[in-house]
């Protein structure tokens, strides 16, 4: 089982300190949040650790589903920069958000928003494929601005276009999916964290109500060979979650 942690937990700290903490726990993988304040990541710093890396592409002020063509193009360019980074460091996966909508677009142009997101995902997926980088698209929580919280719709689109999913287990719970409905064969990467279903709270594993054992065991029975990235809010939650994974799987 491949287990790592997201640098999201150290978003207010130096990246070096976060990577030192993750490696000190004995994990082999870290997921780099490739956006402010870590837009420019020092590859020499990454090479100073024994860790292997995945990359979470930018999502702060970045929207590949924007109906404004220049905004969309800029967003796609930023995502491609994460794929380029993954290519340079032999990154194991890149995670991409399908984009967001706004109140006006949601009211009048929801289908257009989905179509633009789809076009962007295909473009980004082909770019990653051409570089040999596993590029994955993440299911979203059920907030008003989010699209593709419906996992069936996301899975169907991805399968039809030879693309891949990052399963975010906490997002799935927030969107109302029970543990026995979270498996799809398009899943190539996993974000694991906990919540009580009422918020996308990114709690340490075992501190919420998600049936994590059922989900992980289902993935393992279906020969899942990707990474489980612990995506929580602070260092203590990483430590607790890693211990939970070692105790239960």
How would you summarize the topology of this molecule?
Blueprint: E1 2-6, H1 15-24, E2 29-33, H2 43-47, E3 52-56, H3 69-89, E4 94-96, H4 103-108, H5 110-131, E5 135-138, H6 151-160, E6 164-168, H7 169-174, E7 187-192, H8 212-221, E8 227-230, H9 235-248
Parallel strand pairs: 1-2, 1-8, 2-3, 3-4, 4-5, 5-6, 6-7, 7-8
Question: Would you kindly provide a written description of the structure presented here, covering whatever features stand out?
Answer:
The chain is of the alpha/beta class and 249 residues long. It has 9 helices and 8 strands. It has helices spanning 15-24, 43-47, 69-89, 103-108, 110-131, 151-160, 169-174, 212-221, 235-248, and strands spanning 2-6, 29-33, 52-56, 94-96, 135-138, 164-168, 187-192, 227-230. An 8-stranded parallel beta barrel has the order 1-2-3-4-5-6-7-8, surrounded by 5 helices. Helix 6 (151-160) links the parallel strand 5 (135-138) and strand 6. Helix 3 runs parallel beside helix 5. The radius of gyration is 17 Å and the shape is globular. The N and C termini lie close together (8 Å). The relative contact order is 0.14.
